Amino acid sequence: MPRGILIIKDPEVAKLFADETRRGILHMLRHREMSTTDLAKALEKNHSSIIHHLTLLKDAGLVQLTREEKVRNMVQAYYKSTAFRYIISYSLTESLTDGEGYSSWRDGILLKMYEGLDTYGIKIPDDKKNRVIELMEKCYEYQSRAYEESLETQVEHGKLDRHTQPVLNQLIVNIKLSREKEYHIALQELDKIFKL
Q1: Is the pTM for the entire model greater than 0.85?
Q2: Of 29, 103, 144, 189, whose CB count within 10 A is highest?
Q3: Per-residue pLDDT tens for 44-54?
Q4: How far is CA 109 from CA 1, 20, 167, in A?
C-alpha cells in the first residue's frame, strides 16, 4: 500500500472518525506535528478534551507521540498522525450504519455531495433528491471498494512518484469499476437525472 495511506478495517477504530473533534485533530496532525496546547487553541477546545481525544486516537494507532518538551516546569507532548490519509474499509459499511455517530457523519457527506451538484450547474428536482442521494451512495461504495482493492494489490510501495501514483491507481480503479454492472446501471440513472 502506498506510504501515507492507512485502511481502517477495525469497526471500533472506524467509529472514532464519527467525532468532529477527532477528525479535526487528524486533519491537523497529518500536515505537521502539533502539541496538545496547539491543538486546543486551533480547535477551540479545552486541554483535557484534546488529551482525551488524543488518547483514543493514539490507542487506535492513528496518531503517535513524536516528542516531549519541557516548557516552564511542564512537559508538553507533541503528536503527528501515523498516515497522511485514512480510508474506512468498504467492508465495514454495514456494521457501522448501526452507530448513530457514523450514520449521521456518512449522511452528512452524502448531503454535501448532493448540495455540491449545484456547483456543476446540475439542478435536481425536489422529487428526485432521495433517489439521487441513494444512487450516489451506491456509486461511492463501489468506488471505495475498487479503490481499496487497487491499493491492496500494489506489491511495490514507494516506487511511484506522487504524481504518477494517483493517476495509475485511478486507471486501475476504472478498470475494476468497468466490470460492475450495478455500478453502471446507477451511473446511467444518474446521467439521466443530471442531464449532462
Answers
A1: no
A2: 29
A3: 999 999 999 99
A4: 25, 13, 24
Query: Total domain count for the chain?
Result: 2
**For residue 25, what are the contacts with CB-CB under 8 A and spacing of at least 6?**
39, 43, 50, 53, 54, 57, 63
CB-side neighbour CA atoms (13 Å) of 57: 30
Over residues 32-52, mean pLDDT? 94
Domain termination residue (choose one: 81, 105, 127): 81
pLDDT at 85 (0 to 100): 83
**Mean predicted confidence (pLDDT) in 66-85:** 88
Same domain for 136 and 105: yes
Q: Tell me the C-alpha distance between 36 and 51, whole Å.
A: 7
In this structure, the answer to whether residues 76 and 129 fall within a common structural domain is: no
> Given the C-alpha cell 507532548, which residue does it identify?
77
Distance CA 193, CA 196 (A): 8
Residues 155 and 72 in one domain: no
- Residue type, position 11, single letter: P
Residues 96 and 148 both lie in one domain: yes
- The CA-based diameter of the chain, rounded to the nearest angstrom, is 66
Q: Are residues 105 and 39 in the same domain?
A: no
What's the rounded Cα separation, in Å, for the pair 82 and 59? 12
Alpha helices, DSSP H only, in the chain? Answer: 11-15, 20-29, 36-43, 47-59, 93-96, 100-116, 129-153, 164-178, 181-194
Q: In the numeric block, which cell numbers belong to residue 113? A: 455531495
Residues 6+ apart with CB under 8 A from 60: 10, 12, 13, 16
